[in-house]
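Inverse folding, one chain.
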């Protein structure tokens, strides 16, 4: 089962902290690359600061995304 995050949750560090350890898919804005303006990360929420979320992919890559750049996200049941 999946659940999409609301626009308010996307910008709220407290909402992201509640998702620590949760599998998630997030679409985010890339800056400075007009040919590829968006990307996606799928993995577990590992860390949250007031301004960013870090997702660890299945390959072990850490993807840090500023909350202001998150465009959409959904959680997955594990």
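Residues assigned per position:
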């Amino acid at each position: 089962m999946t659940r999409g995050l609301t626009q308010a949750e996307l910008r709220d560090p407290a909402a992201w902290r509640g998702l620590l350890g949760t599998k998630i898919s997030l679409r985010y804005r890339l800056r400075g690359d007009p040919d590829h303006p968006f990307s996606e990360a799928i993995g577990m929420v590992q860390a949250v600061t007031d301004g960013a979320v870090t997702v660890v992919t299945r390959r072990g890559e850490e993807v840090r995304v500023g909350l202001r750049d998150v465009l959409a996200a959904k959680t997955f049941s594990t």
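Residues 2-76 form a domain with the SH3 type barrels. fold (CATH 2.30.30.520). The beta strands are 2-4, 23-29, 38-48, 52-57, 62-66, 70-76.
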